[in-house]
From TrEMBL:
Residues 16-157 form the Molybdopterin cofactor biosynthesis C (MoaC) domain. Pfam families: MoaC (PF01967). GO terms for molecular function: cyclic pyranopterin monophosphate synthase activity. Signal peptide: none annotated. Catalyzes the conversion of (8S)-3',8-cyclo-7,8-dihydroguanosine 5'-triphosphate to cyclic pyranopterin monophosphate (cPMP). The active site is at 135. Substrate binds at residues 76-78, 120-121. This is Cyclic pyranopterin monophosphate synthase. It comes from Parvibacter caecicola.
Amino acid sequence: MSDQLTHIDEKGDVRMVDVSAKPDTERVAVAEGFISMKPETLELIATGQAAKGDVLACARVAGVMAAKKTSDLIPMCHPLNITKAKVECTPVFAGQREDGRVGIQVTTTCGVTGKTGIEMEALTAASVACLTVYDMCKAVDRGMEITAVRLLKKDGGKTGLWER
């Protein structure tokens, strides 16, 4: 791993990294996020009784859409021709986590064959999926909290495999 910030040039200005000389390789990234909520809110989601509809289906679609739009949101990200975007949303009930929180565990997997990594797309997908759950349930639970948005794994390119 480099000790240099790649998006800062020698003068200290931000820049998009030039990846034109890099070979295309298969790359994958896995990220996660968690949105905690009241048990009653989770029950509404799990039983399909949320007023705005199927919360988890909407969050999955939003996550995929977000992965595809990452370069529109994060200034120095390269636009990528994503070949895979999967968003899983799993209800977590009382007693399933050590910290006792209930909510939705989001796990995203993104893939590309290209010159640069796809970590930002996986992280953006996880973040937006969690935000979508919040949006769809905020009328009944404004105290929801999004935490633990983080990269779990990346593979491909010059640096190869990294796992948390």
